[in-house]
Write a structure and sequence with these properties.
- The protein is of the alpha+beta class and 106 residues long.
- 13% of the residues are buried.
- The protein contains five helices and three strands, in the order ααβααββα.
- The model has no long low-confidence stretch (mean pLDDT 92).
- It has a single domain, classed as Winged helix-like DNA-binding domain superfamily/Winged helix DNA-binding domain (Arc Repressor Mutant, subunit A, Orthogonal Bundle).
- A hairpin with a 2-residue loop joins β2 and β3.
- The N and C termini lie far apart (42 Å).
- α3 crosses α4.
């Protein structure tokens, strides 16, 4: 078994991505670096809310930022999220198949 600290660190990352708005942000950042002003329309929230979501992601080590003048641009720090999304979508598809099988047998 792995040390408890590793499980706690994993939970911190999992909690950081466990919000629909943060998933939208991560999806957008997979394509390019963006500022908060670019993300507000995508997320459908005001700038302070998007900034809070970005702070959670940054604190978890998922995104990084850089300042250019008065603008702050965010980017993904890791490239492994695509595989993670495929895994989650695989779970969703399997769950759907199981639900369909249940519904078909009643």
């Amino acid at each position: 078994m792995k040390p408890r600290q590793l499980y706690e660190a994993r939970a911190k990352v999992a909690k950081a991505v466990a919000h629909p708005s943060r998933l939208i942000i991560l999806d957008a950042l997979a394509d390019k670096e963006m500022c908060v002003c670019d993300l507000t329309d995508l997320v459908g929230a005001d700038q302070s809310t998007v900034s809070k979501h970005l702070a959670v992601l940054k604190n978890a080590g998922i995104v990084a930022d850089r300042k250019e003048g008065v603008m702050i641009y965010y980017r993904l720090k890791v490239g492994c999220l695509k595989g993670f999304w495929h895994c989650i979508e695989g779970v969703l598809k399997q769950n759907l198949k199981e639900q369909q099988a249940i519904m078909g047998s009643s």
